[in-house]
Specification:
Layout (H helix, E strand, L loop, with lengths): L1 H14 L4 H21 L8 H13 L3 H5 L12 H4 L2 H27 L1 H4 L12 H30 L8 H8 L8 H11 L7 H19 L2 H16 L7 H24 L13 H8 L3 H12 L9 H15 L14 H9 L6 H30 L4 H17 L7 H34 L1
Helix pairs in contact: 1-6, 2-3, 2-6, 3-6, 6-18, 8-10, 8-11, 8-20, 10-12, 10-19, 10-20, 11-12, 12-19, 13-14, 15-18, 19-20
């Protein structure tokens, strides 16, 4: 079904048929059907990696759909944004995002249907047995990464602006911590949480997760929502490999609460937690969707560069920039462009031409290879997360999932450049933990067996 939907959307995008309200409703249907199909083909249903990734993609790119469908004003931050919010350009953007969702669903289905014969017999949960030592050691490594990353983040933040920086406005936090290397701490925090939860919590892993909860409470209302939400999404999927999680009704209720909290966090980050005059009446799920869904602004900017300004497509430059810049640093560092001036880094180009509006996995795929790039990149992502959703869960496989999923989820609304280094740091830590696990496997299994007796 996904293939027919995708073909129909590509034809519709080619002819540009429909008005924004109708296409917004159509996009909603495509997204819901895509999420449903990934749930149906995943061992752990809604909590599997494939549907959760698509849900995050949808929140950040389809959040403005209710405003198009109901012809409401989303109160966009810049008057220039209304040039793409109204008229035929809006139809084009909505169709491009729908094509992305359908491509992802197709990729997931291609992998899942090849493995569907094994789905009934495939264990949905991690089976300790000989995996016990590996799971314990990997979780310990994750807890260590988490504690180091959280300590790094706290020290760097407080050193830059004192304790009050943690309760002040978001813009003030960004200005004070700029150039401190604070962003590198997220390379440890993100995968650390998911890895720490592969094995049941005990010992210092409990302390590590408790520290993350404290960090999340501060960082979320400070304005660092992605830095909190993306690791949590991956961690929830890891938990689903160990135990059954709540059903649909609970999920929907939690979703409404979360969106309200996100909207409240926007109000807080504008004035700071210490402010006594937040406008709580403006906190609502719809307002949260409007804010989160503005990642589509980056898609609009990317399309305009090529359709209006005639810019050439990057043809993969932004995906290989990390490797190219690393090679240049080793061979000829003097000739390497500054990061802020190197347009092989899409975040640098967006910042220079459009301001600090974030990034988008759909926009970057389009910026490199046009519409076919969106199809291919999202198809590949669907295949990857489709595999993670139908694999036989082992400690090693779940660890690889965590190390790849956190940076790729971050890429949903940011540029691709951090994906490779973040993945390598996580996988390197897991490799070290795996070596330790192999060396101590016998002792841990004996200890576990004695505990079971």
């Amino acid at each position: 079904m996904a293939s027919f939907v995708l073909i129909g959307l590509l034809v519709q995008q080619r002819v540009g048929w429909g008005d924004p309200a109708f296409v917004a409703i159509e996009a909603t249907v495509v997204l819901i059907l895509s999420i449903w199909s990934t749930c149906r083909l995943s061992v752990n249903g809604f909590w599997a990696p494939a549907p959760l990734f698509l849900l995050v993609l949808g929140v950040f790119h389809f959040g403005l759909v209710p405003y198009w469908a109901l012809r409401l004003n989303p109160v966009l931050p810049r008057s220039s944004d209304y040039t793409w919010f109204h008229g035929g350009f809006a139809v084009w953007l909505l169709l491009l995002c729908s094509i992305a969702a359908a491509s992802y669903a197709l990729g997931s289905a291609l992998v899942a249907t090849r493995r569907v014969a094994n789905l009934e017999n495939a264990p949905g949960f991690l089976e300790p047995d000989r995996e016990w030592a590996m799971a314990e050691r990997i979780s310990d490594a994750g807890a260590a990464l988490l504690i180091i990353g959280l300590s790094w983040w706290t020290v760097a933040s407080v050193h830059a602006g004192g304790w009050e920086v943690l309760v002040g406005p978001y813009r003030n936090f960004l200005d004070l911590t700029q150039g401190t290397g604070l962003s590198d701490a997220y390379y440890l925090i993100g995968p650390g949480l998911g890895l720490a939860l592969i094995a049941p919590l005990r010992g210092f892993r409990i302390a590590a997760v408790a520290l993350f909860a404290l960090f999340a409470g501060v960082a979320f209302f400070l304005g660092l929502r992605g830095e909190v939400l993306f690791p949590v999404v991956v961690a929830v999927s890891v938990l689903a490999f160990r135990r059954p999680l709540p059903r649909t009704r609970v999920v929907l209720a939690c979703g409404v609460v979360l969106l309200t909290l996100i909207s409240a966090a926007k109000i807080v980050r504008q004035s700071g937690v210490a402010s006594s005059t937040p406008d709580w009446m403006n906190a609502s799920p719809l307002a949260a969707l409007a804010e989160l869904g503005q990642s589509i602004r980056v898609v609009a900017v990317s399309v305009m560069w090529h359709s209006n300004d005639g810019d050439p497509f990057r043809l993969g430059d932004t995906y290989t920039a990390f490797i190219a810049r690393t090679f240049e640093l080793v061979t000829n560092p003097d000739s390497r462009p500054r990061a802020t001036a190197d347009f092989r880094l899409m975040n640098a180009e967006v910042s220079e031409k459009a301001g600090a509006i974030g990034g988008s996995v759909i926009a970057e795929a389009y910026h490199n290879f046009a519409v076919i790039g969106v199809v291919i990149v999202l198809l590949l992502l669907g295949m990857l997360f489709g595999y993670f959703s139908t694999m036989r869960p082992t400690a090693w496989r779940i660890a690889i999932f965590v190390c790849l999923a956190v940076p790729l989820l971050n890429h949903v609304r940011n540029s691709f450049i951090p994906v490779l280094p973040a993945s390598l740091i996580g996988l390197g830590s897991v490799a070290i933990a795996a070596l330790i696990a192999r060396a101590t496997e016998g002792r841990v299994l004996v200890k576990h067996d004695r505990g079971a007796q």
